[in-house]
């Protein structure tokens, strides 16, 4: 059986640190295990061709890339959301043997899920594997925006010391209203972690209401209308999957309903927020800050506006590369999870229900849109 893994080049770091499992070098720790069972393992990098490395946002998978070459007869495809191999409908049409896609992590929007349904290709994730990792990053991102941390640190590195320049835009999280779009595994863990901060209120927007006991445990109120929801929040955090119903959800129109000077944290998927609308809202002070680790295209082009956008006071940007869900702790969990999904597949055993996004010809999860 041919197992194709599209991982990313970890370079010197991956040679020095064997716990960087999601890299081409360390192969999710799977190569020997797979080969010992007689399977062929192709663990390659995605080969990307930047049209213009410095200034263009245009890029594509190379037609001669390992991905495109090996997908035609691979039965199993393993990808990671951090540096994704985008499995489009066109590529799925070429993937004649493909039966199962496994996401090493959480979030499978880099796969055309509707095309997978049509071709009866299963898509599985390692659900829950990195949700604590992301929830911690969200809380950190909220704090660094509200407290104006990044410009304060940059000032110190520059050798300056002008407290008022930082303090003029630094606040406490205590007493603020924080709301999550999506209150699933990550969104709920964010709410749990915010309880000790004595926020004025914790609220959520999700078509699936939290079980009563869970909502009560964090004292969270559900708001059913999105505009009404954002208008009540000092901080909005986005924690829902990217699908037809969430692409561009936070756009210029919705941003008009945000509280003036709100903070927005998105570690879910870049394309849930409109790139240019967010940058404009930050520049004109509609937002005081935007932070996250996910981008509409990954890797983000060098000139992506989210790298350098700022609020009118020169701060408010907490962007980092996509790594919140790929701490070394998380990598062990998702590598083990991939192995267990593969093992079930080889032995014809039932998969854990929580990991199945697309079953044979149908969505098995309610998280990727209401249908
Ligand atoms: P989950 O399935 O447990 O929860 C998702 C929640 O979003 C569900 O409650 C669902 O009902 C809700 N939802 C879906 N569409 C919605 C909509 N239109 N409006 C409001 N709510 C909606 O998933 P999770 O484990 O919490 O992960 C959520 C997402 O976070 C993933 O799909 C992935 O895109 C992202 N993620 C990012 C990283 C990272 O490293 N940055 C890591 C893991 C997951």
From TrEMBL:
The protein's Enzyme Commission number: 1.17.1.9
GO cellular component labels: cytosol
Catalytic activity: formate + NAD(+) = CO2 + NADH
Subcellular location: Cytoplasm
An example Gene Ontology molecular-function term: formate dehydrogenase (NAD+) activity
PROSITE patterns in UniProt: D_2_HYDROXYACID_DH_1 (PS00065), D_2_HYDROXYACID_DH_2 (PS00670), D_2_HYDROXYACID_DH_3 (PS00671)
Binding site for substrate: 106, 130
Family stated for the protein in its record: Belongs to the D-isomer specific 2-hydroxyacid dehydrogenase family. FDH subfamily.
Protein name in UniProt: Formate dehydrogenase
Organism lineage string: Eukaryota, Fungi, Dikarya, Basidiomycota, Agaricomycotina
